[in-house]
Amino acid sequence: MEKPTLVILAAGMGSRYGGLKQIDPVDDQGNKIIDFSIYDAMRAGFKKVIFIIKRENEQDFRSCIGDAVSRYMEVEYVFQDLQKVPEGFEIPEGRVKPWGTAHAILCCKDIIKEPFAVINSDDYYGKSAFQTLYDFLTTHRDDEKFRYAMVGYELGNTLTENGYVSRGCCITDEKGYLVTIAERTHIEKRGDGAAYTDDDTNFTPIAMDTPVSMNMWGFTPSVLGELEAAVNNFFATEVEKNPMKSECFLPIEVDKMLKAGVATVEVLSSKDKWFGVTYKEDKPFVVESIKNLKKQGVYPEKLW
Which residues pair with 190 in a beta bridge? Predict the structure, then answer.
């Protein structure tokens, strides 16, 4: 079986953070969260990484991340351009927001022919998460259904004290397979619990131990054909409704595949704690967490 590839979603605008957070250092040696993810992936066995970025950020990514990583892994860049729309459709006037994570993955369709993992650029997933996902990708193949995987985390371990977050909330069966996933774009802590809203007004409580997706997925190349159809449908049905902000979310499209019965998603659990920088105020916690992991010997002082 071919060696799996690591795909990193790094084309987000970082609007809530207030800057290009993917290249913001989180230790004294200048390492970024993305560096720790790539380092963990490399240790797990991944040999190639694809960065999905905006074209205007290419030079920053090459100089701050890609050039160093390229000494250890094969590196490629894919651009998620606003202009990449299905034939027959136009970009709404005034639109600046990217088309979403499903569209981002689809931008890789011409260069990915092997199983691949997908992660966010600004989330810390932990060493065991990458090893577990790598092991899955090297031992599973499509058969009568597409065989995919997702690393799940408890919602309570993924919240911030500094604002709201977006999470894919999951229901699993007794065998650990994903039954359904609902993208909640506004979840926030409420006292000792959490709640979500779909209209910024009415909040619904949600259990802290709810398994959630942090966009850490394992796919075979078959998903690219499914996403191409999904993006075409998205432009045909959703963009006109909300031309400035509508997005084609990867978890929503995976959920549609589950409901159609064409795919299964095995939910893999990570022993490691997730953390990330959604807001600038999150950074001190991340810096302290990385420092502690180095003290424990999980990482060397300088990765590259």
Answer: 193
Alpha carbon distance 100, 9 (integer Å): 10
pTM: 0.90
Residue 55 in 3-state DSSP?
A: helix
Three-class secondary structure of residue 296 per DSSP = coil
Give the relative orientation of helices 250-260 and 222-237 as an angle to the nearest 10 degrees. Answer: 110
Number of H helices, E strands in the chain: 8, 13
* C-alpha 4: how far from chain center: 16
Is the separation of the CB atoms in 149 and 137 below 8 Å?
A: yes
> Is the pLDDT assigned to residue 15 strictly greater than 50?
no
Give Cα 78 distance to the centre of its chain. Answer: 15
Nearest to residue 122, comparing CAs of 241, 11, 255, 261?
11
Average pLDDT over residues 64-70: 91
Which tokens belong to 33? 């969260």
Q: What are phi and psi of 253, to 5 degrees?
A: -70, -35
Class of domain 5-295: alpha beta
Mean pLDDT, rounded, of the chain: 91
122: alpha, beta or left? (left if phi > 0; alpha if psi -120 to 50): alpha
Rounded to whole angstroms, the Cα distance separating 150 from 253 reads: 14
In angstroms, what is the C-alpha Rg of the chain? 18
Task: Kindly state the tokens that stand for 196.
Answer: 């979500």
- pLDDT interval class at 230 (50, 70, 90): very high
SS3 126: coil
Question: Which candidate, 148, 124, 163, 164, places its Cα nearest to that of 250?
Answer: 148
What ranges do the domains of the chain cover? 5-295
Q: Which residue type sits at 56?
A: E
Question: What angle, 0 to 180 degrees and rounded to 10, lies between the N-to-C axes of helices 33-44 and 127-137?
Answer: 40
- Retrieve residue 208's tokens: 């802290």
Q: CA-to-CA distance for 179 and 264, rounded, in angstroms?
A: 9
